[in-house]
Amino acid sequence: MVTRAPVFTFTRLWSASNRTVEGLGHSTLSLNPFLHTSLVALLVAVSYYLGSQIGFLFTPSETPIGTFWPPNAILLAAFLLAPPRMWWALLLGVLPAHLLIQLRVGIPLLSSLGWFVGNTGEALIGAACIRHFSKGKPLFDSVRGVTIFLVFGVLLSTLLTSFLDAANTVLTGLGHNYWMLWTTRLTSDVIANMTIVPTVVVFGTKGVSWIRKANFAQIVELGLLTLTVVFATALAFGRQDASSSPALTYAPLLLLIWSAVRFGVGGLSSSMLVIALISIWKAMHGRVLVTGSMTEDVLALHTLLAIFALPLLLMAAVIAERRRAEESSRAIRNDLIRAREQDRHRIARELRDGIIQQLTLVGLNIEQLRDQSEPSSKSRFDPLCGQFAGVYEATSGLSRELYPFALEYLGLSPALRKLCRETGAQNHITINLKEESTPADADMPPEVSRRLYSVVHEALRNIVKHSHAKEAAVELKAAGGHIFLRIADNGIGISLGSSDGAGLTSMREQLLSLGGTFTIVSVRSKGTTIEGSVPIKRSP
Question: Considering the entire predicted model, what is its pTM?
Answer without folding.
Answer: 0.71
